[in-house]
């Protein structure tokens, strides 16, 4: 409990309490006469030196003792002047205490001493400390007003003091007016200082006012002490009867506490509650610099004492009149002159105020004229309403925009023209705005910048509802009437129409008018969030086969016509609650909602088949041409395991998004599968499709690293002459050992093609294989090398030059190299590919068609290609001896190759009866597992050496080959 109580005590409470206790003890001792005049004098010395040390030391440090009392440079300079004042007071008090005649109670202007000069320096330094943190005006008029106010205030206080106190003493003293005026020198100086310093104290910067008022309090206490001392002395009192030392000590204690109290938040005062930006504007208008010093600390500003001089002068006048009527004292000529001059100055000051008031009135009238002209010239509707929202003024813009006559709008409540659906909301925010302003006004003046923004629909004179945005703020006219409301309303009809157009363009395809991908994804999430009440959900993805050829041959304009016609066909063949969207390019997507029954799968498949037919059967009309295309269709269903979980929150939203994304991905995968299988068909998503794609992506990402880490290897499969079993060549085959596991070539060749790595990978295979075979040929082994090439490799820049460079580098003769390509490579881009292969053929490189019989090359076209070898596809060889058709086709290919002068190689020989059949057909060469399996270069070298040695001893070598 005690710890909590200690924490609740403010840090500045302790020094303040100690000062109060010390002051109370001193006042008690002074009144009771403890210690005599010496006690009073030396206590004053001690208080002055303590105040001087505290202020000067605090002014030297960036921060005062309390953590929260860290003023800037301006207020440290003020503290420094306070400290100089305390030090000067210490010097004067010390001199008075040491001097036998240094009794402060007997100090007189007729006998000025050195301590008196220090007292004057102390008062001057204290006033300078109040002025230092204030931004002084540069306008001469401001200084004239300041001088007039100070003079009136000082004269009024002098007259009050004379009539109340010093007039009687003047008659009793018998002194001349000049001598008695010198007796009053200290009070007169104090009155001038008090009146002159007041505008600087009132204008102290926010947060520093307490420090300024403490300094001003010290000045007032010293002034009061001088007045009391002078009165006691002139009245003939003793020094012991003078209680002014208590006031002086109070002033010194206030100075002592200045560094220990520090800045604190203060309530806003009406005389100085001006926002910083407005204060800067006022300063700029007066030709003054910004209110902040170079260090960024806010300065105060000089504020006139306002009604204070007039109030003091009025009190003085009433007091003088009362004394004159009662006849207690007559008015001395000096007092009359003083009062008369103050009255003249006050009249001049009032005349200036009247002129300023007239100028302000004209400025207000001009502002109202400008306001009216502005409201009449803008298109926004400007209304002035009572607090009950009754219209009292309507601008020409309001009448133009809403087509009302003035008598139809004036005097009419706004709630009659607000849409009924928007009215409750508008009334709520309007009432809240008024309540907030009423609560604000109870504590302080309402900020005129506070405004309410509200959007609602407003009825025009013709009955149409217009979307609007209104700003409601306070309006106070120059007539001093009650506060009203200024309503500025902007018609948002064009903006709303533009937003609808932008929204449509954002979520719809500009060519087909169908929803786009963003809309389709959002719609899918919406439908999935309503399951199971929405029934079964499926997506159907459609891709136009051969559409790229339409763009390439007929142009993109023709392609756009095809897409538009396809979109119309799709839209016409789905249910009204199904969503058809253009997914991108030549792809479309359909979101299907079906009732939850056993026929949902069949209905979706039937829909996909119907869409396939409408897109494929009828040709597309493009000008005078008819274009026939097919389509690839994929279907994916939102299964039970994809239901979004119950509950809300961000996790449920993320799971819903993931479910929708998975469904769309599955539909796209099914469509891609249909396209891979040749197009013109419907495929339903199966989980293995996603697994295949994931594995394909993983392989693609690992290929680059595998190439850098040399995870690839080359194996060679021997090719033999079937008649003699002699090895006449080898085929280089690429192998990938991924983490110690062999990856089948059919799995990574495709990703390598798609990623572009097939070009450097194929170059590496060609170089390594040529180097190995060239080494064997240097041992007098007459064997050739076959290397497979893809269409992308052949189409790569400088393909012919790279092959020639490898041959030159490895020393392999060009006629020993055979490039194997599939049939589609020679047919799909016959011009460029055939030209490049022909250039290699001119160098001596031989060309082979791989997997002949399964591709596009017709028998008639075969003679026109630059081909040396045809390799029979293993599917034909597999049917030898068991399938008469395949046997006949194989015999035909062998005979055709012989007639065209081409070398025929049979692939995939795995059984003896296949070998026997091929020998009977006269097929010259063959390869397969029965002949020899693919093997590393070292095993191939041993096999070839053994084969050639056995062939040297006997012309018939049995198969399979050893090794």
Which stretches of 5+ consecutive residues score pLDDT under 50?
1-7, 63-70, 100-106, 264-292, 324-331, 441-446, 640-648
Specify Rg, calculated over alpha carbons.
54 Å
CATH superfamily of the domain at 711-944: EAL domain
Helical content, roughly? 55-70%
**Given the helix and strand composition, which structural class is it?**
alpha/beta
What's the β-strand tally?
23
**Ends: how far apart?**
97 Å
Q: What is the top-level CATH class of the domain at 711-944?
A: Alpha Beta
What percent strand? 5-15%
Q: How many H/I helices?
A: 34
Average of the residue pLDDT scores: 76
Largest sheet: 8 strands, mixed, barrel
CATH architecture name of the domain at 711-944: Alpha-Beta Barrel
The name of the CATH topology of the domain at 711-944 is: TIM Barrel
For the largest sheet, list the strands in their spatial order: 15-16-18-19-20-21-22-23
Molecular shape: elongated
Write out key terms for the chains shown:
alpha/beta, Alpha-Beta Plaits, 34 helices, Beta-Lactamase, disordered N terminus, 963 residues, 8-stranded mixed β-barrel, 5-stranded antiparallel beta sheet, elongated
Structure, explained:
It contains 34 helices and 23 strands. The two termini are 97 Å apart. Among the domains are: 11-60 and 74-100 and 112-134 and 207-212 and 239-259, no CATH class; 378-436 and 450-497, PAS domain (Beta-Lactamase), CATH 3.30.450; 508-685, Alpha-Beta Plaits; 711-944, EAL domain (TIM Barrel). The strands form five sheets. It has an eight-stranded mixed β-barrel, surrounded by four helices. A hairpin with a 5-residue loop joins strand 5 and strand 6. With 963 residues, the chain is an alpha/beta fold.
């Amino acid at each position: 409990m005690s710890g909590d109580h200690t924490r609740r005590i403010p840090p500045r409470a302790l020094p303040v309490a100690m000062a109060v206790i010390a002051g109370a003890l001193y006042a008690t001792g002074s009144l009771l006469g403890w210690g005599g005049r010496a006690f009073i004098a030396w206590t004053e010395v001690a208080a002055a030196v303590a105040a001087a040390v505290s202020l000067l030391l605090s002014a030297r440090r960036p921060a005062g003792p309390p953590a929260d009392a860290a003023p800037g440079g301006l207020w440290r300079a003020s503290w420094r002047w306070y400290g100089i004042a305390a030090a000067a007071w210490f010097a004067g008090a010390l001199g008075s205490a040491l001097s036998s005649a240094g009794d402060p109670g007997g100090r007189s202007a007729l006998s000025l001493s050195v301590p008196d000069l220090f007292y004057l320096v102390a008062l001057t330094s204290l006033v300078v400390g109040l002025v230092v943190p204030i931004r002084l005006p540069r306008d001469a008029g401001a200084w004239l007003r300041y001088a007039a106010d100070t003079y009136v205030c000082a004269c009024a206080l002098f007259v009050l003091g004379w009539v109340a106190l010093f007039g009687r003493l003047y008659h009793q003293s018998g002194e001349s007016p000049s001598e008695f005026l010198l007796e009053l020198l200290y009070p007169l100086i104090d009155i001038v200082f008090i009146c002159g310093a007041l505008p600087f104290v009132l204008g102290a910067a926010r947060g520093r006012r307490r420090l300024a008022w403490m300094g001003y309090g010290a000045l007032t206490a010293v002034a009061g002490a001088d007045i009391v001392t002078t009165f006691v002395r002139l009245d003939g009192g003793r020094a012991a009867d003078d209680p002014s030392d208590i006031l002086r000590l109070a002033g010194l204690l206030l100075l002592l506490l200045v560094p220990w109290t520090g800045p604190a938040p203060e309530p806003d005062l009406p005389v100085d509650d001006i926002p910083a930006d407005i204060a800067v504007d006022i300063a700029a208008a007066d030709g003054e610099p910004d209110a902040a010093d170079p260090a960024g600390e806010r300065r105060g500003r000089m504020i006139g004492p306002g009604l204070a001089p007039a109030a003091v002068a009025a009190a003085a006048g009433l007091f003088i009149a009362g004394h004159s009527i009662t006849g207690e004292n007559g008015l001395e000529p000096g007092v009359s002159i003083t009062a008369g001059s103050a009255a003249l100055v006050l009249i001049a000051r009032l005349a200036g105020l009247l002129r300023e008031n007239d100028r302000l009135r004209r400025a207000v009238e001009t502002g109202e004229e400008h306001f009216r002209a502005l409201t009449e010239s803008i298109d926004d509707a400007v209304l002035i309403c009572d607090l009950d929202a009754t219209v009292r003024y309507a601008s020409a813009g309001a009448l133009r925009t809403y087509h009302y006559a003035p008598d139809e709008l004036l005097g009419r409540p706004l709630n009659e023209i607000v849409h009924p659906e928007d009215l409750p909301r508008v009334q709520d925010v309007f009432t809240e705005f008024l309540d907030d302003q009423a609560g604000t006004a109870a504590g302080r003046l309402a900020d005129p910048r506070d405004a309410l923004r509200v959007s609602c629909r407003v009825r025009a004179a013709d009955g149409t509802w217009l979307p609007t945005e209104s700003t409601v703020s306070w309006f106070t006219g120059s007539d001093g009437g009650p506060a009203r409301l200024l309503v500025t309303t902007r018609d948002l009809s064009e903006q709303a129409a533009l937003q609808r157009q932008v929204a449509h363009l954002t979520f719809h395809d500009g060519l087909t008018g169908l929803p786009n991908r963003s809309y389709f994804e959002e719609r899918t999430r919406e439908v999935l969030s309503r399951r199971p009440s929405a029934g079964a959900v499926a997506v159907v993805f459609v891709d136009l086969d051969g559409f790229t050829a339409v763009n390439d041959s007929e142009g993109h304009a023709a392609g756009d016509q095809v897409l538009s016609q396809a979109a119309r066909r799709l839209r016409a063949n789905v249910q009204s609650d199904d969503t058809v969207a253009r997914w991108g390019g030549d792809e479309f997507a359909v979101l299907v909602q079906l009732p939850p029954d056993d026929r949902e799968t069949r209905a979706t498949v039937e829909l996909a088949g119907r869409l396939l037919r409408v897109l494929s059967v009828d040709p597309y009309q493009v000008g005078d041409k008819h274009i026939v295309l097919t389509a690839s269709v994929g279907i994916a269903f939102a299964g039970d395991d994809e239901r979004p979980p119950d509950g809300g929150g961000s996790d449920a939203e993320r799971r819903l998004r993931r479910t929708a994304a998975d469904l769309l991905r599955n539909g796209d995968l099914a469509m891609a599968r249909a396209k891979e299988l040749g197009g013109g068909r419907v495929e339903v998503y199966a989980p293995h499709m996603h697994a295949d794609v994931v594995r394909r992506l993983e392989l693609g990402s690992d290929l680059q690293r595998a190439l850098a880490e040399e995870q690839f290897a080359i194996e060679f499969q021997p090719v033999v002459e079937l008649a003699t079993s002699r090895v006449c060549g080898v085929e280089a085959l690429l192998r990938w050992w991924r983490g110690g596991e062999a990856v089948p070539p059919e799995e990574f060749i495709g990703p390598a093609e798609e990623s572009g790595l097939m070009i450097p990978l194929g170059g590496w295979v060609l170089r390594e294989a040529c180097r190995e075979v060239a080494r064997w040929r240097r041992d007098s082994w007459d064997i050739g090398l076959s290397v497979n090439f893809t269409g992308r490799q052949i189409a790569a820049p400088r393909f012919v030059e790279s092959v020639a460079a490898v041959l030159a580098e490895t020393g392999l003769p060009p006629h020993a190299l055979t490039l194997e390509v599939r049939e589609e490579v020679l047919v799909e881009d016959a011009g460029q590919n055939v030209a490049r292969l022909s250039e290699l053929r001119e160098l001596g490189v031989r060309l082979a068609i791989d997997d002949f019989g399964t591709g596009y090359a017709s028998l008639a076209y075969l003679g026109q290609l630059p081909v040396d070898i045809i390799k029979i596809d293993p599917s034909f060889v597999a049917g030898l001896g068991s399938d008469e058709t395949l046997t006949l086709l194989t015999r035909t290919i062998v005979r055709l190759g012989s007639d065209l002068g081409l070398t025929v190689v049979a692939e995939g020989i795995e059984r003896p009866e296949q070998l026997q059949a091929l020998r009977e057909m006269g097929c010259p060469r063959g390869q397969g597992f029965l002949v020899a399996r693919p093997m590393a270069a070292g095993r191939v070298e041993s096999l070839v050496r053994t084969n050639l040695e056995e062939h040297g001893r006997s012309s018939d070598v049995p198969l399979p080959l050893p090794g």
